């Protein structure tokens, strides 16, 4: 069989621990035998990040901007314990945070759904994609533990030194807490553009919700910016495709989401998206089945699994024990990136290969072969628990059949 040729390279970002093991296995078994793979390789494993003072992460993000499509393995975000474990020079920031800041992107998370995996919410028969604004709010705030009586004030001084806002937030009589958060119009605009474009490209309705009735300036600004951008840039195309943009209050949205059948994108502010994406992921089943793509407003795509490096399984692997780690979300990161590369470069064979890779993976599970996490969830009579590499080899058998 002739291998599929590529034109433009994919930006390949390797990572850490169990997912780094999976990365190599799935490339060797599921991609390299079939695709004459062109990638620009960046090793974002913690050792290499430390060696390069984390410059490698910035270079990888710049490469995503240059080529437009990247695929990333899960990586360790160092904490105090990792400082000792890896003897690090510094406590580096989260690579995902660095990449997101450079691409100015929005993260879309969607579960891989299957008939044999019943969501906890019975009415959900299509995936729900969460779009989380990944900038500002409580993640970039000033906060203070108020020790006792005193006045909390909020003040804005413009660039000419004029105080244009100066209000008392609260007169404390007793100890308490205090926080100041912000966001920027241009970041909210990027978020809105990424959401509308992603809705159009995946042909799904877009829901957006905030608490604008209570937060009449802060949250209302989000609502107004989304509405303006929709009216100016996207309304006509949404209507042409029969898609809906729907704004509602967050509490109303929660109730509607639970009653819905799924099949739409739910855009949320930073904190709301953080919380709701874990809720939706858990209700759909396993974290190992959650895909994630970072989309920038100028059309760059970075695909990855939503889960981490699965440290516990890695330590077992190092002890020589056999593991049953689910590679589905990492496989779908590769298929997502290869499909997008194929679409952008007009290579139908590559798009077709990406679709068949997904089909082979889904059919493998549907035929009863799966990793331990899914065996606990799947509603099927006959299930065979596979090892990490056993599962990937089973997918390869199916893929070869589909491509033959
Ligand atoms: P995790 O790697 O997502 O794993 C948490 C638990 O979820 C695992 O112990 C396992 O449960 C289950 N799980 C997750 N993915 C699985 C898979 N593919 N197959 C089977 N089970 C799976 O989260 P963590 O242990 O909190 O974090 C580990 C490291 O990953 C940390 O250093 C963190 O910084 C990093 N991290 C990176 C990213 C990223 O790069 N995007 C995201 C999150 C975390 P059982 O042990 O019960 O089997
Ligand atoms: Mg969270």
Structure, described:
By secondary structure, the protein is of the alpha/beta class. The chain folds into three domains: 1-107 and 288-404, Isopropylmalate Dehydrogenase; 118-139 and 183-284, Isopropylmalate Dehydrogenase; 142-180, no CATH class. 45% of the residues lie in helices and 22% in strands. The protein has a ten-stranded mixed beta sheet, sandwiched between helices. It is globular and about 70 Å long. The mean pLDDT is 95. The chain binds NADP nicotinamide-adenine-dinucleotide phosphate and magnesium ion.
Overall average pLDDT = 95
Shape: globular
CATH evolutionary superfamily of the largest domain: Isopropylmalate Dehydrogenase
Number of helices: 14
* Small-molecule binders: NADP nicotinamide-adenine-dinucleotide phosphate, magnesium ion
Described by strand count, sense and barrel closure, the largest sheet is: 10 strands, mixed
- Number of DSSP strands? 18
Indicate the radius of gyration in whole angstroms. Answer: 23 Å
The structure class reads alpha/beta
Which range does the strand content fall in? Answer: 15-25%
In the CATH hierarchy, the architecture of the largest domain is: 3-Layer(aba) Sandwich
From the 3D structure, determine the CATH topology of the largest domain: Isopropylmalate Dehydrogenase
Strand order of the largest sheet: 4-2-5-16-15-6-7-14-12-13
The CATH top-level class label of the largest domain: Alpha Beta
Helix content: 40-55%
């Amino acid at each position: 069989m002739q291998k599929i040729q590529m034109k433009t390279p994919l930006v390949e970002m390797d990572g850490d621990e169990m997912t780094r093991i999976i990365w190599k296995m799935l490339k060797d078994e599921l991609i390299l035998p079939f695709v004459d793979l062109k990638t620009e390789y960046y090793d974002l494993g913690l050792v290499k990040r430390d060696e390069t003072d984390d410059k490698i992460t910035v270079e990888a993000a710049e490469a995503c901007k240059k080529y437009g499509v990247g695929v990333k393995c899960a990586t360790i975000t160092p904490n105090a314990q990792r400082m000792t474990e890896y003897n690090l020079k510094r406590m580096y920031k989260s690579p995902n945070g660095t990449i997101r800041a450079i691409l100015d992107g929005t993260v879309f998370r969607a579960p891989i759904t299957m008939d044999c995996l019943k969501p906890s919410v019975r009415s959900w028969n299509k995936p729900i994609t969460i779009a989380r604004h990944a900038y500002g709010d409580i993640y970039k705030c000033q906060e203070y533990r108020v020790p006792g009586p005193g006045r909390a004030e909020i003040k804005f001084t413009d660039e000419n030194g004029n105080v244009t806002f100066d209000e008392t937030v609260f007169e404390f009589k007793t100890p308490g807490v205090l926080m100041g958060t912000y966001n920027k119009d241009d970041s909210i605009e990027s978020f809105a553009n990424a959401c509308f474009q992603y809705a159009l490209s995946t042909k799904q309705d877009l829901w957006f919700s905030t608490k604008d009735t209570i937060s009449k300036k802060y949250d209302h600004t989000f609502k107004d910016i989304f509405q303006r951008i929709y009216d100016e840039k996207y309304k006509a195309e949404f209507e042409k495709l029969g898609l809906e943009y729907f704004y509602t209050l967050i509490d109303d949205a929660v109730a509607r989401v639970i009653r819905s059948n799924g099949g739409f994108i739910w855009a949320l502010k930073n904190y709301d998206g953080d919380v709701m994406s874990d809720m939706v992921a858990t209700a759909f089943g396993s974290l190992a089945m959650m895909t994630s793509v970072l989309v920038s407003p100028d059309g760059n795509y970075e695909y990855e699994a939503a889960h981490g490096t699965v440290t516990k399984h890695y330590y077992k692997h190092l002890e020589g024990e056999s593991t049953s780690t689910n590679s589905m979300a990492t496989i779908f990161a590769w298929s997502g990136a290869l499909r997008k590369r194929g679409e952008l470069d007009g290579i139908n064979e590559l798009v077709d290969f990406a679709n068949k890779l997904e089909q082979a993976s889904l059919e493998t599970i549907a035929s009863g072969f799966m990793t331990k996490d899914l065996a606990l969830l799947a509603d099927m009579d006959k299930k065979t628990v596979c090892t990490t590499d056993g599962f990937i080899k089973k997918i390869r058998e199916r893929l070869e059949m589909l491509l033959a």
